[in-house]
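Researcher: Please translate sequence to structure tokens.
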Amino acid sequence: ENRQAEIRNRGVKSSWDHFTGEMQDLRKRIDKTGGKGVVFLTEISTSPTLKAQFKELQRKNPHLQWIQYEPISSDRVQRTAKEVFGQTCVPVYHLDQAEMIVSLDADFFGSAIYPTSYTTDFFQRRSQAKAGSPLPQLMVVEPTPSLTGAWTPDRLILKSSQFPSFCQTLWQQLHGQKSENENHFIQQIKTAVSSFPGRCVFMAGIHQPDIVHEICHRLNFEFGKKAVAYRLVSPSSFGQKDLKNLSTQLEKSEIEALFVIGGNQAYQSPVALNFGQKLGQAKSSYRFSMNED
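Model: Translation complete:
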């Protein structure tokens, strides 16, 4: 068990009093500069609460930076979502409201890239199902076995290279078009879609190509009711570009205070950035994490 249980200062046990004292001194300094040189580095988050908190911080300190980074980029999700919804956004699914979920290589039970709320919402929906009423239907298409696929008998194994053609066939058959590749699994999806209008969710795996993500977005737009099956969240700062900018600021000793919340960017960042070594060039730095690593 390596769960963090105490505050440490340079590896030595410290106290909340010492930490809050430092924060009070830091606040006095940054209030004079509007947050210049203060950076919060977090994992990618779609939490509306966290977003509102940072918005309030930036209102009071306009120069404060919030950078979100993960080694697995969500650029493909955002790019294809913009094609469909007309805005740069990330879809967040309401699995506690969905009557049918189609996972196209999206292992939302077993992969850390998905919010833990997906698992919580799914099982909450199952527990709320009344006796005798059908459980929410989960249909999984995947190239290799996953935790998500293990939870349903409605599972289809496909080669990764077959996903684009499968999705195109799915789109055609859901719209009554003739297709060369008749598929019994798709017929099951078609039946479920007609049974649960507005409460269907289609999820594409992060590694799937653009065409799979775009079709999923379009199917959600058409068969999933917005604010019921999903919502759209506008991202803040994403990707390696911001991490590179932060790396440059660290080199120039421009960072007054760096707050690292979650993740381990010293190990997850590109090797060429040498980010782990540059972290020590911040005038002060603080890390918040459940685990010590």
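Researcher: Any highlights?
Model: The radius of gyration is 22 Å.
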